[in-house]
Amino acid sequence: MRVRPSDGLTGTQLLDMYRWMLLTRAYEDRAQELWSKGLVVESLHGSQGQEAIGVGACYALRPSDVVAPSLRTRAAFLVRGVPVRQFLAGMLGKATGAANGKATAHHMGRPEGGILLGSAIVGASIPVATGAALAFQLRGEDRVSVCFFGDGTAQRGDFHEALNFAGVMKLPVVYIIENNLYAEFTPIAKHFAGQSLAARAEGYGFGGLAVDGNDILAVFDTVSEAAERARLGEGPTLIECMTYRQRGHSSSHAPTEGRDPAEVEAWLKRDPIELFRGELDRRGLLGDGVLEGIRASVDQDVEEAVQFAIDSPLPDSAELYRDVYAEPGFGNEEAR
Amino acid sequence: MTTIAYREAVQRALREEMRRDSSVFVFGEDVAEPGGVFKATLGLLDEFGPKRVFDTPISESALAGVAVGAAMMGMRPVLEIMFADFTTIAMDGIVNSAAKVRFLSAGEYTAPMVVRMSYGAGARWGAQHTQSVESWLMNVPGLTIVQPSTPHDVLGLLKSAIRSPDPVIVLEHKNLYGKKEDVPDEEFLVPIGKAAIRREGTDVTIAATGAMVDRALAAARTLAAEGTEAEVIDVRSIIPLDVDTIVESVVRTGRLVTLHEAPVFGGFGAEIAASVGQRAFGYLDAPIERLGGAWSPIPFGQVLIDEYLPSEQDIVRAAERTLSS
Question: Cβ–Cβ of A109/B109 closer than 8 Å?
Fold first, then answer.
């Protein structure tokens, strides 16, 4: 039988991965509650149902690698070290949040942890992540850039331009499509006539793989191998993770608006956290009190973050004029 | 001093900066083997090799974003956009990404990158190869924009642009690539954000950019024959705009003509006029004259191009109008 990278994961690591998934889910659910109470100023784009992708992929990387999360790769921010409290404070528009209140949490960047700055223009991060890979290649570093985006974003021109460029340059980059079957409200059948997004990779001269995006170990294995190829100079990989968005496009929309109830039910049965819990149970890792312990510590983290975010101050209005340029007042500000 | 052409000044600036800083690299469509369609990157591939000077697919959108990503990771990319008109394709990377990197990360990330592009009308390249795009970009905080009109300035400004900690757009007028001038043999920089007075005068100020600077100087010679001394200011930098130099000139002359190739409406001349109106209103002896391209797409045929662009005679007449009121 083939040795899989995940075979080397210890019980402690597996439980840690489970904890990241649970923390991400608890965070999203709690943020939704706060949003309903009018406390969250950022429009939420819940990642419930897609946690296995961010956790599995980031767990397969080295600290020196970089990631460009999509607006629905919440897990990537957390696994790569953004404190839950800072992320949530950002969603509340607080001074302790992303860029001191200047940026949305969804697209925040953080050099510590290698999180590339995102953009609310879906697809813009594909060339940016590709450029990071170019920098690594130019300097001869064995670092990998990993870019997450959705099936809807895969229809942007930037997808084609960036993947073609990466293929030509053989860049150390891994593209991960979180195919959750919906582009905002539009089901995939209405925005994609092909059979497979992964198959597009052939046209760019590198490998494309489809994987069960709700199976965290499958994601971990596929990304581990892709990152290894990238490090060896073998170029990019496109990975299409099949998954399902359990919530609406954003916090303003009902979870299953306009969907077939049978489809929803079938996917909820394949909830990635429940699937992984079953796997951990089969491996005998869930002894007495283990689950309860994880849940309690996750809840504690989230509640501590909620308190921190609520207690945090709003930004000082002078913050507006900081970081426009390196030199304060540079540009044509005096015309104001 | 050595006499060099504008394109050679671009080559020299890139060469000097690439020698000085190993994080500088040059990429774009046909910039390596062919040396660029205007030969402004000729010779770089031979000296610096294919890792630091390379050709790319026709993918301006990706290239702009790639530059942002590489810059965020500590490189100093110099991207050539073959014709400035193609910035429409690269606009997202420039406007939504590059210009906002520092702000949206509170300075934790920066995008020290240069986008060079050939712009400008006057030769028969057609509507989508000849536009002056500074107005499209100058409403974007976070960007720096320079528009050098001489070999000396493109050399010194491009070097300053490459050393800038923020993204800089360098607009190179395609008709100037063959223009020659003596430049110092020793290294020098031209600071970004400083206008240059090309001709001193006492009667009217003409503030111009790029290839229009030479046309303004020609008009000034005609005006001098009639006894009018025009002061010609080469604006050089759109962001930041050196309002002080222009205002100081208008305080002396009492009259102002703004001049560029982009259409007058929404052109940078409007910004100059507004700033002068605000800061030197009491010194103005006549309404400000604004000259620019016609409100039409830029045509292909020469007769129509001549009609589109402000002519030397148009400049003379505008100056005369300020003097007659």
Answer: yes
